[in-house]
Structure formats: C-alpha cells, structure tokens
Design brief:
The chain is an all-beta fold. The protein has no helices and eleven strands. A hairpin with a 6-residue loop joins strand 4 and strand 5. The radius of gyration is 13 Å and the shape is globular.
C-alpha cells in the first residue's frame, strides 16, 4: 500500500506562491495517476486536479483557472503542487491522493 506525506504548507500573503511536495512510499508510485484535493474549514473536500502515471497529462477543476500546476518526479517518488496568485479563499488543508489513499495533509493559510 502506498503511503503519502505532504509538506510545504504555511502562511502566505494573498498574491503569493507556495509549492507543496508529496512524498510517496510503498507500492510503485510511478504506476498510478495521483492527484490533489483540499478541504477548507466548514466545507466539503473538493477535487483540485490530477496527473497521469507518466506525467503526460494533467486535469484540473474549473476553479483552478491556471493558478495551480501539478507535476511529478517518478524518480523521486514525489508529486508537486505549485500554487500561484494565492487568495484567502485558498486557505485549506491540502491532501495528495492515490485512489482512496490520502496523506495527513498540509495546512495552507492565505492572509489578505
């Protein structure tokens, strides 16, 4: 079974950027499509985007609107989420996911 550990969260001002890595271990990471979801306080978890096993294709929720980019490095067993032009409404816990497996998440707080 794959294990996932997110990191890189923190406090950032509106308009700023963050890069979130997600380190994977266990099953062969490179064989699976992987993605990101987030959950804001008091809201349901929402899909952000995903990337195919070889990184050739990415898919994003409509609300991402080009601000976020998902990438992966299969040699390092790591998934990345680059977030730009952050807004206070992006404040949430961000999780990487493989199928139904998620990490513990990393908190991102965007101040206005």
């Amino acid at each position: 079974q794959v294990q996932l550990v997110e990191s890189g969260g923190g406090l950032v001002q509106a308009g700023g950027s963050l890069r979130l890595p997600c380190a994977a271990s266990g099953r062969t990471f490179s064989s699976y499509a992987v993605g990101w979801v987030r959950q804001a306080p008091g809201k349901e978890r929402e899909f952000l985007g995903c990337i195919t096993w070889n990184g050739d294709n990415t898919y994003y929720a409509n609300w991402v609107k080009g601000r976020f980019t998902i990438s992966r490095d299969n040699g390092l067993n790591t998934l990345y989420l680059q977030m730009n032009t952050l807004k206070p409404e992006d404040t949430a816990v961000y999780y990487c996911s493989v199928g139904s497996t998620r990490g513990l998440g990393t908190q991102v707080t965007v101040s206005s």
